[in-house]
Amino acid sequence: MSTVAAPPLPSIHRSPYHQSLRRFSRSTSAMVGLIGTLLFISFCFGSLPWTVPAYNSQHLHQVLQAPSWAHWMGTDKLGRDLMVRFFLGGAISLSIGLCAAAITLTIGTAIGVISGYAGGRIDAVLMRAVDVLYGLPYLLLVILLRVAVVSRVAGWLSSIGLPQSNGFANVLVLLVGIGAVSWLNMARVIRAQVMSLKTRPFIDAARALGLSPWRIGLRHILPNIMGTIAVYATLAVPGAILAESTLSFLGLGVQRPLPTWGTLASNAVADINPVSAHWWIIFWPCFGLAASLICLNFLGDGLRDAFARHSS
Predict the structure, then answer these.
(1) Burial level of 254, CB count in 10 A (0-12/13-18/19+)?
(2) Any idea what the Cα angle at residue 276 is, between residues 272 and 282, rounded to 5°?
(3) More confident of the two residues 98 and 307
(4) Each residue of 131-183: pLDDT tens digit?
(5) Helix spans in the chain (H)
(6) Which residues have C-beta within 8 Å of that of residue 216, sequence separation ≥ 6?
(7) 283 and 207 in contact (C-beta within 8 Å)?
(8) What pTM does this model have?
(9) Residue 303, class by beta-carbon neighbours within 10 Å (0-12 exposed, 13-18 middle, 19+ buried)?
(10) CA separation for the pair 264, 78 (Å, rounded)
(11) What distance in Å separates the CA atoms of residue 34 and residue 295, rounded to the nearest whole number?
């Protein structure tokens, strides 16, 4: 008696996003970057109930103590626990980096897609505006923003009962200021990508089907530039953190006694001398900056590779 072979099972259709996610999850460096980034975010933000009340607690009898069981990261020249200040500084630095990167991605992607797809006069007007903003130093814009807005934001924060309202107002204005002037390069890169994509056959086919420009942008153009957006996102976060460090070093960033990794590192430079090198003061903030930068780079490389195969 002959047997009839069973028909092959139909292949499961996987969306391009699902395929990109699978490729990303199979990359060892990408997963290391993702896990490392999540660990930094979890420890820094999860410890806020403990670090916020104690970040400025001074104990002059414990000045410049090396790492020990009592103080795992040592103390600074005012006897403050460096672990407390490291985690709070990391939360503030990461907040500035993430929020500034979100503002950068939102503005840069929107301007780049609209300019590249619309072309003509809209493209000319938007790109001339970008050229004008390129000619303005971002330090001047941040200073003007701080002078005009910080006092009002501090008043609003104090009205809702937030302690250190002036310090947190500086943080909010700083992250908005950095994000508002950091989208120019991204807008130009996204514009170039969109101008290349809109001449591809699948975009012509979408136009022939009568799809609206908004639907073409959301369904066909935006998914194909996700690799570029992901890479710029991972570059924008450490870029914003380094910009904050520069402004804090010049006295225009986060004000004392609030810590960030940048201010902790710049303050430690004055305490390093050939006679007594208190290595732990400079090591921990530099470790936070370097390790977070490496994790973000690994994460960005994994996202770029996953989405690049999708766009190809």
Answers:
(1) buried
(2) 35
(3) 98
(4) 888 887 777 777 787 778 877 887 777 777 766 667 777 778 888 888 878 88
(5) 16-25, 28-46, 48-54, 82-118, 120-134, 138-159, 165-180, 184-197, 201-208, 213-216, 222-224, 226-249, 261-269, 279-311
(6) 117, 203, 206, 207
(7) no
(8) 0.82
(9) buried
(10) 13
(11) 7
Q: What is the pLDDT of residue 41?
A: 94
Q: Is residue 6 part of a domain?
A: no
Rounded Cα distance, 189 and 222, in Å: 13
Residue 5 placed within a domain: no
- Rg over alpha carbons for the chain, rounded to the nearest Å, is 24
Which domain covers residue 295, as residue numbers?
40-311
User: How many CA atoms, within 13 angstroms, populate the side-chain half-sphere of residue 92?
Assistant: 32
Which residue, among 98, 119, 263, 141, has the nearest Cα to 192 in the 3D structure?
119
Question: Residue 111 maps to which CATH number?
Answer: 1.10.3720.10
- Three-state DSSP at 253 gives coil
Cβ atoms of 41 and 90 within 8 Å: the answer is no
Give the distance, in angstroms, between the CA of residue 5 and the centroid of all CA atoms in the same chain: 56
Q: What is the dihedral of CA 26, 30, 31, 32, to 10 degrees?
A: 140
- SS3 label, residue 81: strand
* Residue 127 · residue 115 · CB < 8 Å: yes
Bridge partners of 75? 81
